[in-house]
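Most newcomers find our protein records easier to grasp once they have seen one. To make this concrete, we reproduce a full record directly below:

===
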Amino acid sequence: MNLSSRAWKAAWPTARAYKPRRGVKPSAEQDRAAGGHHRRAVALGDGRFARASVSLRLAKGQRRIRAYLRWSEGGKTEERYIGEVDQATRSRNLADAWRLALDRGLVGEEPLPPQSKASSRSARAVMRANRRRDTGPEIALRSLLHKAGLRYRVDVCPLGTTRRRADIVFPRKRVAVFVDGCFWHGCPEHLRAARTNADAWAAKLEGNRVRDAETNRLLRDAGWSVIRVWEHEDPADAAERISRVVRAGETFESDRASE
């Protein structure tokens, strides 16, 4: 039992440990705590599944927070007790409750549809989120560049001889910007090795890194500046870096170490 749990024997848990916060979408909150929408599945039998949520309640007359799993079946709300949680914040308590529910077999990962080529629901979620253009990080970066007075083209091939498309292109300044997803481009900070089909995924990601390096070389050889931005980077910092290069009008080589 941790220190917070011992302290709660003499004091009531604060509201922030179990009460929902205003402005937080319940579904998004549950997804984050569970580790993904696909990990909130309760098996109903016959291949059917329900999407569950965790409810946190202060036990009546006790200084304990109890977690319950709730889902709907046949128009009725079902509920199962998970256990006690004792963290200082609601987000941590929800995460602990989902881990308990998973360990006790109360929930699991929803099976993949028969037609899916992904190795797991987690992999499928990543693949479906991997849009070719107009991703959240791209839109945020483009908005800041536009506010800075810069004009550009979107999702075009800087070189007519190749099919390599850049996310943001400044044709007159010959600057090509790529906003790279952490998973598909092998971010050293956030990439996590796949648990299934590990060799195949490793080969795929290595191929992407090789292609990125080749794209950089082809563009630089043609006199273009290449800027690569990770999706996790602060868009304001990235926009400032890009603005300096575009306004300077000098050839710039991406400073990413792997390139």
About this structure: The chain has seven helices and nine strands.
